[in-house]
Amino acid sequence: MSQTCTRKGCGKKFDRVDESECWYHPGPPVFHDALKGWSCCEKRVISFDDFLSMPGCTKGVHTTEVEAPTPAAPKPAASAAPTHVDKDGKEVYGAPVPQKSEEGGAPAAVPQAVKPTQQTINETKKVDLALLDDPEDAQIPLGAKCKRNGCSVTFDGSNRDGCVFHPGTAIFHDASKGWSCCKRRVLEFDEFLKIPGCKTGKHLYLGPKEEEKTNVVEEVDCRTDFYQTPSTVIVSIFAKQCEESKSTIEFYEEKLVLDLLHLGTKRFKTEFQLFGPIVPEKSKYKVMGTKVELTLAKGNGLSWGGLRAGESGAGMIRFGVSGRTGTIGGKEIIYRNQS
C-alpha cells in the first residue's frame, strides 16, 4: 500500500522507504513582507503557488513520521528607554527621527489621498482563479495537479468535480497563519496546509492561458505597523514598489480604505474602522520604495489603544519631559498635602 512522504517540499507517494530518493526542505518556511521561501535555501518567491512548488534542496529517503514543531524563540523584552530626545527636550518613544529635505528646511509635504482613473483600474483587471473552470473539451494530462488553493488532487482521467478549496488568499500575520476566506488561524505551517477548504466546485488543472496570466493580480496581505504622537498616528504598510497611479488611498473620519497595487501583480485591499476619529483633510500619505506611510491627523488628540476599532495594546506614544515637576517625565516627585 502506497504512503505519502511527510517531508516538507516532497509529498510524493511511495511503497518502500528505499525505493526512490527524496528531495525536501529541512528548514522551516520564511515569510518576510511579500517574499516567501525556506530558511535552508536562498531562493525567494512572491507567489504562494510558486512557494509550494519550490523543489527541495536536501536529498534523503521518504518517511511518514511527522516532524515535531520547532519552539519559537523568545522575543526580547521591549526597552523602556526613549528612542531619542529632540531639540525641545522631548523624549520620543518608538518614533523615527524626522528627515529633513536636501535643502535643510522642513520635511517636504506629503500628498493627500488619491484615486486611480478608470483606465488604470482596467489595466490591472483581476482574473480570479476561484471563478475559472477548465473548458469541458480541454485535454488534461494524467497526473496534473489541481491549482486551487488547499486542493492537492491529481487528475486520474475522470475526476473533474468534487474540488474542496480556499477561494481567498493565504494570510501570514505575526505567528498566525490562515486564509482570508476562513476565520480559522493556526501557528504551525504544517497545520496551515491541513486547513480544509471552505468552498466546493470543479477542479482547475490547467488554469488561465499564457496570454491571460499577465492580467492576473494576486490579492495578498501586507504587514502593517504604527506608532503615534499626541496629534497624529503614523502607519507603515510594507507594500514594496507601490504604483501610486493604480492604487486607491481614501481617508474618512472613522475608517480607512486602501487598494494598493505593488510589485506589478500584487494587490493589498482592505477597509477597516479606525480606533479613533481623524481629520481627513489633514491626513496625508507618502509612497516609498519599500512601504507606504500614512499620517493620520487625530480628531480629538486622545491616545489610541490600537490601529483598528476594538484592538488593544497601545502603539508607541510621544511624551514630553520639558517640565521639572507635575508632568510625565518630570524630574521630581511632589507629594500634595492632603490636610
Automatic annotation (TrEMBL):
Region (Disordered): 68-117
Domain CHORD, chain residue ranges per copy: 5-62, 146-203
Annotated CS domain residues: 219-308
PROSITE patterns: CHORD (PS51401), CS (PS51203)
Pfam families: CHORD (PF04968), CS (PF04969)
Keywords: Metal-binding, Repeat, Zinc
InterPro entries, per database record: CHORD_dom, CHRD1, CS_dom, HSP20-like_chaperone
Top-rank lineage group of the source organism: Eukaryota
Alphabetical list of PANTHER family matching this protein: CHPADIPLOID STATE MAINTENANCE PROTEIN CHPA (PTHR46983:SF3), CYSTEINE AND HISTIDINE-RICH DOMAIN-CONTAINING PROTEIN 1 (PTHR46983)
Protein's recorded name: HSP20-like chaperone
Organism: Myxozyma melibiosi
